[in-house]
């Protein structure tokens, strides 16, 4: 059974950091592109970061480039999103996604709220 479970969300003050984790199971993790999306209230879902299998250069949305870092540990079937210098505009539900041709899996999401 395929599962993606996010953790690490919460309430944080502007300028602070959070690290999101996503635990995967039930599929060949190492062959999948792993992505983090977010959906803010009243806005469309946004691709935040992407990391492909093997040695590759991660992709970041312009809105988070230089502040967020995506990483993966294939042996542990984990993907992470280190979020630094968080701003109020980063408030959203963050979703972990696993993708390859013909397969597209989602986690339930974790809430990140940036507020003073």
- Fraction of residues in helix: under 10%
What is the H-and-E element order? EEEEEEEEEEE
Distance between the termini: 40 Å
- Low-confidence blocks of residues: none
What's the story with the biggest beta sheet? 7 strands, mixed
Fraction of residues in β-strands: over 45%
Q: Which structural class do the helices and strands define?
A: mainly beta
Rg for CA atoms = 13 Å
Shape: globular
Notes on the structure:
- It is built from no helices and 11 strands.
- With 116 residues, it is mostly beta strands.
- The model has no long low-confidence stretch (mean pLDDT 96).
Outline of the structure:
Helix content is 0%, strand content 53%. By secondary structure, the chain is mainly beta.
Main attributes of the structure:
mainly beta; four-stranded antiparallel sheet; globular; seven-stranded mixed sheet; 116 residues
Describe the secondary-structure layout.
Blueprint: E1 3-7, E2 10-12, E3 18-25, E4 33-39, E5 46-51, E6 59-60, E7 68-73, E8 78-83, E9 92-100, E10 103-106, E11 110-114
